[in-house]
């Protein structure tokens, strides 16, 4: 391996680790604030989009995954995605518009693929909503519409 390739690899790893740590700490801080303020009146302000995506896409119960352990995993996944995209984009020697467009596509591909895998893992471990809960929820909605 040439000296230039080693320097590029070290540069990649340093950027990855620094960005990963910064993003992880920021996301963990944000999610801890949301956990503390979960009982506030304005709940829309404190919703976590990743949890909403998992609940809609994989039919996972939000109440089961709104705890510190799963929010820490979500923080790790977000930090991993952002650090990977930023590190890969720094290695590409193209015009800035190409870097941004590749980064944008790569970001969405990683978000959807990683959260799809995480959702499958949660379903495998039994975090999926039960069928009775879905039927009861639909029954309550139809009952409200009748009034």
Question: Could you walk me through the main structural features you see in this protein, from its secondary elements to its overall organization?
Answer:
The structure is a single chain. Helices cover 80% and strands 0% of the residues. With 147 residues, it is mainly alpha-helical.
Features:
147 residues; mainly alpha; 6 helices; 80% helix
Apparent shape: elongated
Number of strands: 0
Biggest sheet descriptor: none
If you average the pLDDT, what whole number results?
A: 84
Give a short summary of the structure:
The protein has 147 residues and is mainly α. It has helices at 3-36, 49-58, 62-65, 68-91, 96-124, 131-146.
Task: List the topology elements.
Layout: H1 3-36, H2 49-58, H3 62-65, H4 68-91, H5 96-124, H6 131-146
């Amino acid at each position: 391996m040439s000296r230039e390739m080693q320097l590029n690899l070290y540069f990649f790893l340093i950027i990855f680790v620094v960005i990963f740590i910064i993003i992880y700490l920021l996301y963990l801080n944000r999610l801890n604030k949301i956990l503390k303020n979960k009982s506030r009146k304005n709940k829309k302000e404190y919703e976590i989009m990743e949890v909403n995506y998992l609940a809609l896409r994989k039919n996972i119960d939000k109440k089961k995954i709104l705890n510190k352990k799963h929010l820490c995993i979500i923080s790790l996944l977000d930090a991993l995605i952002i650090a990977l995209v930023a590190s890969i984009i720094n290695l590409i020697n193209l015009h800035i518009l190409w870097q941004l467009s590749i980064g944008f596509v790569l970001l969405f591909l990683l978000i959807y693929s990683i959260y799809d895998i995480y959702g499958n893992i949660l379903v495998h471990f039994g975090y999926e909503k039960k069928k009775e809960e879905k039927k009861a929820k639909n029954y309550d909605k139809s009952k409200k519409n009748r009034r």
